[in-house]
Amino acid sequence: MIQFLHVGKSFPGGRSALQDVSFQLERGEFAFLSGASGAGKTTLLKLIYREIEPTSGQILVNGRNVASIPRTKVPFLRRTIGVVFQNFRLISRKTVLENVSYLPRILGMSQQERKRLAYNTLRRVGLAHRMSAFPTELSGGEQQRVTIARALINRPEILIADEPTGNLDPELSWEILRLFLEINGKGTTVLLATHEHQYVRALGGRSLVLERGRLVVDEHVEGHVGDIESKPAEEAEDPIQPSTGDLM
Amino acid sequence: MLARILGYFFSEAAVSLRRSWKVSLVAIVIIAMSLFIGGTFLLLTSNLTRVVENWRGDARIVVYLTADKVAREDSQVLQLASEPPWVTAVEEISATEARSRFEATFPSVRELFKDWKEEPLPPSLEIAFEAEGADDGQLDEWLVSLRAHPSVVMVDDDRDWLRQLEALIAILTGLGAVIGLVLLTAAIFTIASVIRLTAYLYRDEIEVMRLVGATELYIRGPFYVEGVVQGLLGGLLAIAALYGGYVVLNPKASTTFLGNVLVDRFLSPEALVFLLVIGSVAGLLGAVLSLRREELGQ
């Protein structure tokens, strides 16, 4: 599904962000991409959805060489990849519904179709009741869930998340992680970048570790369920229950 | 599908215009000013052209004869005057008739010739002709032969002053085009700046749109529509101002010859559409200029 073949990326000025990175992610796999800040996680993710291009090597997504896709066709690649950003990147002047249904809108769906699809997707992340709110009226966890809903709305085959818990407190972070597991359980390939290795140990799965731009670890890690169960009981029961703010 | 896309472009453009209405208003006013000035020249020259066209139909060649010759007695001149196929009529004006006409046209100075024993004005031939029927070379040749005739004192060709009037129209048209073009260029750059500013305000949104899979057409479309709408509104404002000026000036102007000539009729529907099209194209150009690839952070 995603294949990196000796990928390198240098930025102007000669700074090397990635060096000779090779790995392959299979369909339906869940992988953590971890490493310290500046290790090259965001650069690697940006290469997948062609926000930047590699300096060397090849990146294949669904068998297509991403770097050789013409600029005008890049949007069509991006429509098959859901991206969750650390800083949410929601459009503040648009409601939750408008943010989530942006892609269906540009795909030419009718307003009714868009609303139905957005409602179903928002229900999946537990935010169907906040459709008409603006991003600024939402908590950090809610905003992140809206971002996830936006990434999921076109039923992407791949979901990429860049530090999705970076701006959240630990409780909300677990909630979001459980949501990713649930999404993965339905067949979506998930690549989640985090600098917090505790999540990898707790949830288990494929672990890719970057260090100064090099892939130094590529292994399967057994999860320690106890780490999740040690979280507050109400969190563990329903990861997508409404927040206190919603109930108020 | 197309209706939905256009609907999206227009709704986003409306939001953007509302969001930055002050700078948009500046762009609209500047484009209106340039179109108003261009439109004023268009109004003047179109009226002047129409008048010249009418006068051209009435254009005559007047052949003044020596005082001792009466036209009808000089069959040779008459034959020369009537010969060409483009001549439609030749009217003989005797010296007496010329004097009567003069007195009728200028009654205040009719006393001037009271004590004159001889007729003060020469007899003449007034030649009507179809300008389209003759080429200029043939006409000029014919006029030379008329002027060379011993019975002819002078040949007065109305086309001479019509040519001068046409030259004036050409100067006015050129001047209007130059001033309009300069102002329109300024308007295009103003619109470009306004849209660049709007795009800057939306830069985060544009980045998000691009990352979720919006094509460039979707990202740029609303800005293009915004430019066209600004140009169109500028055009409408210019037309309203032109019409206002016309309504105010026309009743007063029509009492004078010059006013009657210059602001007799308002612009034709085609000219109005032309102004709107120019405004829209200027707006679109401004948007295209402002959204070059590097401007949108691609």
Q: Give helix % range of chain B.
A: 55-70%
Oligomer: heterodimer
Round the Cα radius of gyration of chain B to an integer and report it.
Answer: 30 Å
The biggest sheet of chain B, with number of strands, parallel, antiparallel or mixed sense and barrel status, is: 4 strands, antiparallel
- C-alpha end-to-end distance of chain A: 43 Å
Low-confidence regions of chain B: none
Stretches of chain A where pLDDT is under 50 for at least 5 consecutive residues are: 232-248
- The CATH class of chain A, by name, is Alpha Beta
- What's the SSE pattern of chain B? HHEHEHEHEHHHHH
When the domains of chain B are counted, the total is 2
Overall geometric form of chain A:
globular
Q: Would you kindly provide a brief summary of this structure?
A:
Chain A has 248 residues and is of the alpha/beta class. Helix content of chain A is 35%, strand content 25%.
Structure keywords:
heterodimer, A: 248 residues, alpha/beta, Rossmann fold, six-stranded mixed β-sheet, four-stranded antiparallel β-sheet, 11 helices, 10 strands, 25% strand, globular, B: 298 residues, alpha+beta, Alpha-Beta Plaits, 2 domains
Walk me through the topology:
The complex is a heterodimer of chains A (248) and B (298).
Chain A: E1 2-10, E2 16-25, E3 30-34, H1 41-48, E4 56-61, E5 64-65, H2 74-78, E6 81-84, H3 96-100, H4 102-106, H5 111-124, H6 140-152, E7 158-162, H7 170-185, E8 189-194, H8 197-203, E9 205-211, E10 214-221, H9 225-229, H10 233-237, H11 244-247
Parallel strand pairs in A: 3-8, 3-9, 6-7, 7-8
Antiparallel strand pairs in A: 1-2, 1-4, 4-5, 9-10
Chain B: H1 2-19, H2 21-58, E1 60-65, H3 75-82, E2 87-93, H4 95-105, E3 124-129, H5 136-148, E4 152-157, H6 158-201, H7 203-212, H8 216-253, H9 257-262, H10 269-290
Antiparallel strand pairs in B: 1-3, 1-4, 2-3
Helix pairs in contact in B: 1-8, 2-6, 2-8, 2-10, 6-8, 6-10, 8-10
